[in-house]
Write a structure and sequence with these properties.
The complex is a heterodimer. Chain A is mainly α. Chain A contains six helices and no strands. Classes of the chains: A mainly alpha, B mainly alpha. Bound molecules: zinc ion.
């Protein structure tokens, strides 16, 4: 058997079964290189312990409850403030892009260059608006679905 | 004690006592899972809170397939990754964050004083930096395997991918971590 390098990780995790496991077992018992590979892998895997853990928070439920209560109040706020604000941003971006296109469109020789530049800008602005819209839509969907 | 699926049934009907029991049963593992991504208590608590808010809100759509923890881990992983992404955007937007990042250096750099005995916090920073360099998929597989002790099959369920994808992610992740942490593995 060639050194089963790609199998060593799963072997170390005890995730190989039957024939494969026995074959790797047999190989490792005879191959010092693979034993070294496994050892190194284990050592760095063990160091991950240093990552530590979070402290418990016995009051998490209270937090969850109050988050559920406050978020029920939000839909009205969103409709009143966020929608008009989004519309305003859209308008401003439109005006900005419009002014850019007129400013850059004069010399014919550089038209192609400018065209791709503007297209990039349009795509960026478009996707920003798209994201904003999707965010808004999904939040409304969620809050509607949960409004009691 | 009612089991998780029983509590989810009650949660579907809006039973808040069921929510309390679920939070208290699973909060520590969710807090820990989030902490391993976000690296601080405040953000971990925020993620954990949102996991349970999300669980409550999606209870009506929940269909019992496999363990509830698989479902909760999936929510926790997604929210943790969102939290990190938002934080990066925030940091990018603030000049303060930029300078902070520039002076922080890279603690996972193998050439940095490998023979010094590191304080726990320092070693934690080294490990975190090494983990942070992994692509999200590899990092998730590592966290779920190393800290939550999930089998490859369970990890595949959480990540909604194949078992062989989990296997290859873990293989690549271990090699990468080995490289980054080589200098610190000597002392073991
Ligand atoms: Zn070998």
């Amino acid at each position: 058997m060639k050194c089963p390098i790609k199998k060593l990780s799963a072997y170390m995790d005890g995730e190989l079964s039957g024939e494969t496991r026995r074959a790797v077992d047999f190989h490792v018992s005879r191959c010092a290189d693979c034993r070294m590979r496994l050892k190194r892998m284990r050592l760095s895997w063990n160091i991950l312990d240093a990552l530590g853990e979070a402290q418990d928070n016995p009051y998490l439920y209270t937090r969850v409850r109050s988050a559920l209560m406050t978020r029920r109040e939000q839909p009205r706020w969103r409709e009143r403030v966020l929608l008009p604000v989004t519309a305003l941003i859209a308008l401003a971006l439109g005006l900005f892009l419009g002014s850019l296109m007129t400013r850059h469109s004069v010399p014919v020789s550089t038209l192609a260059e400018n065209d791709s530049y503007t297209r990039e800008l349009e795509t960026a602005a478009g996707s920003m608006l798209g994201d904003l819209y999707m965010e808004l839509a999904s939040q409304q969907l969620v809050s509607r679905g949960n409004g009691k | 004690m009612p089991d998780d699926q029983e509590l989810m049934k009650r949660l579907k009907k809006g039973d808040e006592e069921a929510l309390r029991l679920l939070v208290n049963r699973h909060r520590q593992s969710i807090l820990n899972l989030a902490y391993r991504y976000v690296g601080n208590q405040d953000d971990a608590e925020e993620v954990a809170q949102d996991v349970f808010v999300n669980l409550y809100r999606s209870a009506s759509r929940y269909t019992p397939q496999g363990k509830l923890t698989t479902y909760m881990y999936r929510i926790a992983v997604n929210l943790s990754l969102n939290k990190i992404r938002d934080r990066k955007v925030g940091r990018y937007l603030s000049l303060h964050g930029l300078s902070e990042r520039n002076t922080a250096g890279n603690p996972a750099d193998e050439t940095q004083r490998p023979d010094t005995i590191l304080e726990n916090k320092e070693l934690e920073a080294v490990v975190r930096a090494a983990l942070d360099t992994l692509p999200a998929g590899q990092r998730t597989a590592v966290i779920l395997k190393r800290f939550n002790g999930l089998s490859y099959e369970e990890i595949a369920e959480v990540m909604e991918c194949s078992v062989s994808a989990v296997e290859s992610r873990l293989h690549r992740a271990k090699l990468a971590l080995q490289k980054k942490l080589k200098a610190y593995a000597k002392n073991e």
